[in-house]
Amino acid sequence: SERKARTRKAPAYLTFDDIGGQQRAKIELKEALDFLIKHEEIRKLGIRPLKGILLEGPPGTGKTLLAKAAAHYTNSVFIAASGSEFVEMYVGVGASRVRELFKEARSRAAKENKESAIVFIDEIDVIGGKRDGGQHREYDQTLNQLLTEMDGIHTTDSPRILLMAATNRKEMLDSALLRPGRFDRHIEVDLPDKKGRLHILNIHGKNKPLSEQVNLEMIAEETFQFSGAQLESVMNEAAIYAMREESPLIEQKHLSQAVDKVMIGERTDRESTK
Ligand code: ATP
């Protein structure tokens, strides 16, 4: 395959304030990240370094956003990849991509004069799934390489490396990844509650012309079990409805239509994947 290990740069920086809801996840994450920042103290006390943070929760809840905000918070370079990018037909290719990813993190940190780098792997379950007795040899090598990279992280390293990973199926992960010294911290990133939904709607409504009559609290009420990604869709669809009606402002009815549309869209998606 010609496909190269793609590593995506974060577009602009992103802070924890740009993420709606997720109060508990943010607090837990910041606490964990302080380990990366206070590395001198950690080293002096002989505490082993924090190597991995696992973000766990349903799709579209802001795990990638949290990882990006973590990079900003710790003044680290941010390198991201998705587990599916490491799946290849040829044995060894996935493993060498893992190696490249960490190499790139180190060289980018050096180039940008940063003391630390956060490597983010979305859909970690694709490569870190339970190993079943030599069935998936290629996956095994990829996972082994990831474990090797994690084991090679030391507090005295320059730059310091932190691996963050996201999954919505933690129970699928190989126990080797969950052992002490690997992904030590698990942070749950749940669907937002009503307050969180309102926060997210406000964030995505910030740059949109909302009519004064708009009541986002009502929309937050109506969007039980919506993810952050779906709420972002609601705001976007509402703007499209406004445009169709040549309305300069987004009205409450546009938002309600958008809620229905996103809800129905989800349902048909689910039907078609059955
Ligand atoms: P997946 O597991 O599908 O990769 P994820 O949890 O990583 O999902 P993100 O990629 O972080 O989700 O979120 C997708 C988009 O949804 C974001 O770019 C953002 O527009 C919106 N979004 C999701 N959660 C939030 C949130 N908590 N606050 C604001 N926007 C959010």
UniProtKB/TrEMBL annotation:
EC category: hydrolase
Keywords, in A-Z order: ATP-binding, Hydrolase, Membrane, Metal-binding, Metalloprotease, Nucleotide-binding, Protease, Transmembrane, Transmembrane helix, Zinc
Q: What is its EC number?
A: 3.4.24.-
| Key word Nucleotide-binding present | yes
Domain (AAA+ ATPase): give its ranges: 49-193
Q: Give cofactor(s), names only.
A: Zn(2+)
From what superkingdom does this record's organism come? Answer: Bacteria
Q: Annotated Gene Ontology MF terms?
A: metallopeptidase activity
Q: Is the keyword Membrane assigned to this protein?
A: yes
Q: Which family does it belong to?
A: Belongs to the AAA ATPase family.
Q: What is this protein called?
A: ATP-dependent zinc metalloprotease FtsH
Give the species.
Paenibacillus konkukensis
Species lineage = Bacteria, Bacillati, Bacillota, Bacilli, Bacillales
Query: What residues of the intact protein does this structure contain?
Result: 56 to 329 of 501
